[in-house]
Amino acid sequence: MAKSLLGDTTVLLRRSLRHIMRSPDTIITTVIMPIAIMLMFVYVFGGAIKTGSDSYVNYMLPGILLITIASGVSYTAYRIFGEMSSGIFERLQSLPIVRSSVLWAHVLTSMVANLISLVLVVGVAVLMGFRSGAGFLSWLAVAGVLFLFTLTLTWIAVIPGLSAQSPDGAGAFSFPLIFLPFVSSAFAPTETMPGPVRAFAENQPMTSIVNTIRDLFAQNPVGNDIWFALAWCVGILIVAYVFARTVYHRKIA
Q: Which structural domain range is residue 128 located in?
């Protein structure tokens, strides 16, 4: 069963990746907004925001990476909705393949597409002055956190992709996820925020994830933030995965 799942998923993954390579505009569209936000904050607002950091692009890059992922997974929901509404899911299910392989192929496609987007955004950040003295293990830890975060948001994206009634509805779920980093420590220290806003910012997932990545880049001790970040991601991932699989089985039943 596991061997069949792996083989079927690999075949369907190649199919999805070919579609992306034929339409690179989806990845370009994904990175345009995060890069535009990065340019605006660094060159327009950066001088007015006191972060205690020598380089504002170093400070804000972790939040930009999370926004990039949140923007990217909206296309995952859109792709799933498109195949559901066009009947492609039903055609694939009629083939002698493991049913869950269709879903896993979309999830892995999202992981690959977001990896490309993240590399492009980091490349632009380097051109803007981003520098990190982090060693291999720190970069590996950053990659691990981003991988887990991407996987979590991707499984969240599967749910509206399967259940939305329109393409706009499938992609609209990502708007709150894109907005959340703005109410976190991503662009300004939470200490500068009013009481209720600060309380929310300090106790939502994005802040612990941003702080973890920022400390890893800066070679600072990560403290408890990494455990909060992992707990948030794993907890949400489990709930999203179970709910997505439930919706999927109801749709193909």
A: 2-252
Per DSSP, helices labelled H in 128-224 are 136-163, 167-172, 174-179, 195-202, 205-218
Q: Closest by alpha carbon to 64, among 218, 213, 175?
A: 213
The type of residue at 75 is Y
Q: What's the pLDDT tens digit per position in 50-91?
A: 777 778 899 999 999 999 999 999 888 888 888 777 777 667
Whole-angstrom distance, CA of residue 154 vs CA of residue 161: 10
- Strand, coil or helix: what is 237? helix
Token duo for residue 23: 């339409």
Q: Hey, what's the torsion of the CAs at 40, 177, 131, 46, to 10 degrees?
A: 30
Do the beta carbons of residue 82 and residue 164 sit within 8 Å? no
Cα 45 to its chain centre, rounded Å, is 25
- Please give the full DSSP string across 23-46, using - where no structure is assigned: -THHHHHHHHHHHHHHHHIIIIIG
- 74 burial via Cβ count (<10 Å: 0-12, 13-18, 19+): buried
Closest residue by Cα to residue 119 from 50, 34, 54, 201: 34
Residue 199 neighbours by CB under 8 Å, 6+ apart: none
Query: Rounded to whole angstroms, how far apart are CA atoms 209 and 57?
Result: 17
Three-state secondary-structure class, residue 96: coil
Cα distance between residue 161 and residue 129, in whole Å: 37
Please state the domain count of the chain.
1
CA dist 217 and 198 (Å) reads: 24
CA angle, residues 83, 89, 91, in degrees to nearest 5: 120
Q: Give the best-scoring range by mean pLDDT among 1-10, 24-33, 168-177, 211-220.
A: 211-220
